Amino acid sequence: MLLVALFVSALGTDFLRGSAMAKVVSIGSDLGALALFGALGHVLWLLAA
Hints:
The protein is mainly α and 49 residues long. The protein has 3 helices and no strands.
């Protein structure tokens, strides 16, 4: 919710656009973390599936 508030206040977007932008940033962060931890061997793939 903090990221949505930041996009709305700092960039002057409306709530719907700020929420969509925050969702894209969140998904990118999640995929980046999965790639990093997967590459380092810290993901239990059998448990994750």
